[in-house]
Amino acid sequence: MVEAVLIDLFSLPANLQNNIQGLLRNTLETIEKCSSLPAPFVYVLCYQRQESERNGEQESLLPALGDFQSLKKRLEVVCSLTTTAALYTVKQRLDEKDLSIVKVILPASRKDLMKVYIDHLFTAVYQFEFEDLQVASDCENLQIAEHQNGGQTLTTQDVALIRSEIQMYLESLPSLNGELTILRSSLIPDNIFLHGFTTRTGGISYIPTLSSCNLFSSSKRRDPQVVVKENLRRLANAAGFNPETFHRVKIDHANAVCIMGKTEPDSYDGIVTNQKGVTIAAPGADCIPVLFADPVRKACGAAHSGWKGTLLGVSMATVNAMVSEYGCNVKDILVVLGPSVGPCCYKLPHESAKEFHRIDPKCVRLFHSANPHIDIRRATRILLESGGILPENIQDDSVTDQNQNITFCTACHPDKFYSHFRDGTNFGTQIGFISIKD
C-alpha cells in the first residue's frame, strides 16, 4: 500500500507552466480516485529558479492545487536548487511520519537518474515504485521537451556528477545538536597515538534515534551510507585523521581478528595494525569499543565486544594478534574500554547469564532472576588480566577513575550516546578509533 506519492516536475521548463498545471491536475485526480488511502501524502518536486523567490513555484501551481481539498494538508510543493536538496527534504518528511512505501511519478527520461539519487540517499528500509508521468497527446511542447532530455542511459560521468552533487549538499548542511565531541584517554600516549571515542553530537543525522553523529549504516536503518560518510568526514577533520585510510571492523559478534596488510576476512570484530597513518575503529551502541596501544612496539588495535564477543574472548584475541604479528609484550599493551552499557541497565536471559557467572559471580547481579543484570566490562577486564594484561594498564572508568569520563553507560546518557538497548532497532552508533602518528 503506497504511503506517499512523489511527483517529479523538476526537469520541466518554466515556460510550460500552464501545461505543468494540467499535468499536475490530472495526476492528483488519479491519486484521489485510485488511492487506497483517503488522502496520501503527496510531494511535488520543482526547480527553484531564483533563490529570492522561494514560494514562486508553489504560487504558480496554486490553480492546479486549489481544488484538491482532501489532499490540502498532505500536499507539499518542494522547491530546491538541486534534485539532491529536494529529495533530502522529502526524505525528512517521510522520516518524520515514519513512511516507507513511496510511488514516484516522473518523466520517463528521469527514471534512471532518479534511481541513482534514491540509491544514494535512501536505504532498503524504503520501497519505491515508479510510474511514468502521463503527457497528454496535445501537449506538444512537453513531448518535445521530453525528447530533448534524451534517453535513460546514464554514463559513468553522469553518476559521478550525481555523487558529487550529493556530497557537496551534505557538506553544506549545519551540524546538529552541538559541536562534535571526542573523548580521549590519558592512558594512551598522545605523542605516539591519535585516538578517541565519539559521542552523538556534531553530525548531520536528523532522525531522533540517529541524531546526530551516527557512524554506521545498514539496510535496516534509515541513515544512508552517504550521511554516515559525511559524519565520518567531519569526525576525521576534527580528530586529524584521513578518512580515506579509515578501516572499521566488520561485525560478526565473534572473535576473528583482521591483520591490516593481510587478506581481510569476510567478518571480524578485532583489527590490528602497525602501519602509520591508518586509522582503525570499532563501533559500539552498548557493546564495548575497546582500544589497544603498545607504545613500545608502536602497534595498536580495536575490538567490538558485545556479550557474545566477550564470552568468545575477542579482546584477548586482539591482544594475541598484536603479540604474534608485531612482537608486542603483553605487559606493554594498554587497553581502554569505551562507552558501553553498564550493569545498571543491561540484562540477559538466565541461560546466557550463567556463562558470565562462570567467569566471575560478580559479573552478574540478581543471578536467580529470569533476566539478571550483566557486567560485560568486568568480564572483559577479568579475561584480559587472565591473559597477562596488567590491571593498571586497563582503563575502565566505572572502577578505575570515574573522573576520566570515558566508560560511561550508554543507556544512562541519551544526550551523549546511542544505545540499542534504549532506542530499539533504528539505533545510532558511536565508535572508538586509533592510529599511529607519523
UniProtKB/TrEMBL annotation:
Subcellular location(s) of the protein: Cytoplasm; Endoplasmic reticulum; Nucleus; Peroxisome
Cellular component GO terms held in the UniProt record: endoplasmic reticulum; nucleus; peroxisome
Subunit record text: Interacts with FASN. Interacts with SDHA. Interacts with ATF6, EIF2AK3 and ERN1.
Known catalytic reactions: guanosine + phosphate = alpha-D-ribose 1-phosphate + guanine; inosine + phosphate = alpha-D-ribose 1-phosphate + hypoxanthine; S-methyl-5'-thioadenosine + phosphate = 5-(methylsulfanyl)-alpha-D-ribose 1-phosphate + adenine; adenosine + H2O + H(+) = inosine + NH4(+)
Pfam families, per the entry: Cu-oxidase_4
Coiled-coil annotated spans: none
Family: Belongs to the purine nucleoside phosphorylase YfiH/LACC1 family.
Assigned keywords, A-Z: Acetylation, Cytoplasm, Endoplasmic reticulum, Hydrolase, Immunity, Inflammatory response, Innate immunity, Metal-binding, Nucleus, Peroxisome, Phosphoprotein, Transferase, Zinc
SUPFAM superfamilies linked: CNF1/YfiH-like putative cysteine hydrolases
Gene: Lacc1
EC number: 2.4.2.1, 2.4.2.28, 3.5.4.4
Protein name, as recorded: Purine nucleoside phosphorylase LACC1
GO molecular function terms noted in the UniProt entry: copper ion binding; hydrolase activity; S-methyl-5-thioadenosine phosphorylase activity
